[in-house]
Amino acid sequence: MTYCVAARVNEGLVFLSDSRTNAGIDQISTFRKATVFEREGDRFITLLSAGNLSISQSVREILQSHSIEDEQTGEPLTLWTATSMYDVARVLGSAVRELHQRDGQALREQGVDFNVSMLLGGQIGTEDPRLFQIYSAGNFIEAAPETTYFQIGEAKYGKPVLDRILSSDTSLEEATKCLLVSMDSTLKSNLSVGLPLDLVVYRTGQLGQAHILCLDEDNAYFKYLHNSWGPKLRAAFDAIDNPVWSLESSAEHPIARTQSRFSPLKKVTQSAGSTAP
Of 80, 158, 160, 238, which one has the fewest beta carbons inside 10 Å? Predict the structure, then answer.
């Protein structure tokens, strides 16, 4: 399994992925799931992948030389000639479909699903940074101001903090911290997600100058975050009053009510000698 997450905020883009793959409890490997395509001053693109490792690796190889037809000019478009991130997403989706046509039947015959999902984001020229999620069918959706992040892989454990913290106005530094907390929560709850982590932080307009880091268990900041988040979460939990059951209590927020919307079901014990209706 894996966990990848990416966010688009007004200040830029943040990408984070783990590196654990496994085919059983005794066969665990480390593979990088983040790829950066960069031409300084022109474009900066990051790709994260989850799903079948052989499929995602093949898609990345095909992507580097794959082309589609420009909808307006009819000229071939590639990762390196596309003038918008939307067209790059189209190129990637087409590469996924090409691989499915080539290998899909053979995989089905071996009982293997064609399973791959990807997060693609970046900036080309003066266009605003954009973020996409690509599915196994090659179709995709784009992040919007109301949906600032995408997750693929083992998403459920890291989702709550993203929903509570992230918005378009979140600073790039806070977005980075939020994604790292999301990843730490996933690491805590799922052994199929593991270190090291690949982190890419891109600021709008930089076109090639990004923070690209590999974080392992010795990274000072991630170690600090890991050791701080649990106790601070516990302290916030402890600061909330426990429920008070007595209506006579002076509690500011009583959980009991004098009237209820419904009455709980109760089992009625029949007295001796009575008969059921």
Answer: 238
* pLDDT value of position 57: 95
Q: What is the span of the domain harbouring residue 106?
A: 3-236
The CATH number covering residue 190 comes to 3.60.20.10
Angle between helix 85-109 and 53-63 (nearest 10): 140
Residue given tokens 């080539």 in the structure block:
102
Judge whether 84 lies within some domain: yes
Q: How many CB atoms lie within 10 A of CB 47?
A: 28
**What are the structure tokens assigned to 169, written together?**
């106005």
Phi, psi (deg, nearest 5) at residue 142: -115, 145
**Above 60 in pLDDT, residue 277?**
no
Read off the tokens for 257.
Answer: 């009510």
pLDDT at 246: 75
pTM to 2 decimals? 0.91
* Six-digit token string for 211: 């923070």
- How many angstroms separate the Cα of 76 from the Cα of each of 37, 81, 93, 165? 19, 8, 15, 41
Q: Can you tell me the mean pLDDT for 13-30?
A: 82
